What does this fold into?
Amino acid sequence: MVEMGQIFKELRTARKISLKEAAGTALSYSMLSKFENGDSDITISKLIPALENIRTELDEFAYLVRGFNPSEFNLLKKEIWQALDKEDIAYLETGYEREKENYQKTNCEESFLKTLIFKTYLAASGRPVDFNEDEQAFLYDYLFRIDIWGEYELKIFSDISPLLSLATYFRYTREMLQRIDFFDELPSHRNMIHTILLNGLFKALEENDLNKVAYFDKQIQARFFEENETYLRIVYRIADGHHSYLRGQKEKGSVQIKRAIETFRFLDCHSSADYYQKIYQHWLLEFE
It folds into this structure.
C-alpha cells in the first residue's frame, strides 16, 4: 500500500494548493507537513476535511492508496467475469473449493459469502448447484443483522440473487428498501438498487406473478432512471415490454422489446443485445 501522506502531497501539489490552504482549520500546518513526509498519521476526522480542501473525493484517494488497484471484492468479480468470457469453469470450481476450505478452517464469513458467489456463477454457466437451507439461513442472518446497508451488502445481495426463489427475493427486497436510506442518493448505491429492482421485475415476469411485477415496477417508478442511466432505461423498456405482453398487449410489448434490443445493437452493445434477445426468445416459447 502506497504511503498515504505521499499520495496526499502529490494530489495537493498537482492542484497548486499550499500546505496552509490544505490544512485549513481542521489541522495544523505542521501536522499536515509531518503526514505528507510520512512522520505521523492523521485521524479520519482530519483527513476528510483536508481532502475536501484539495478537492479530492475519499474514494479517489483510497484508489490511489491501494496502488491503482480495485477493492478485493471488485478484483474477484473482474476475475470471475474474465473466466466466464473464456468459459473457464475450472477457475470457478477451484475458487469455490478454495473458499469452502478457507471457511472450514477459519470460520470466516467473507469466505462463506465468496463460496455463494462462486456457486452463483457456476449455476450461470450451466452447472447444477444446490442452494441448501443452511446457506439460505446464513445469507439471511448475515444480511439482515445489518441495519444500514452499504455498497458491499447490495453487491452481495445482487450477486447471489440468482440462487433465490422469487418469494425469497421479494421478501429480501422489501427488507432491503428499509435499510438503504442512508446511502440511496449516492450514484454507486443508486445503480445497485436499480439493478436489484430490475432483476426482481424480470424474476416476477418469468413466473407470471403480476402482483410482484406491479410491486417491482412501482419501486422502479419511484426511483426512475436519470437520462445518464441510459443502459438501465433500455433494460427497463425490455421488462416493461414483457409486462405489456402479459397484460394482453402482445403487439405493443413485442415492438417495445425489439426496439430496445435494436438500441443496444445500435450502440454496439452486442453482448447485451444477444443476452436479452435470448431471454426474449425463451420467454416467447414459454408463454406462447
Remarks:
- The longest helix spans residues 187-206.
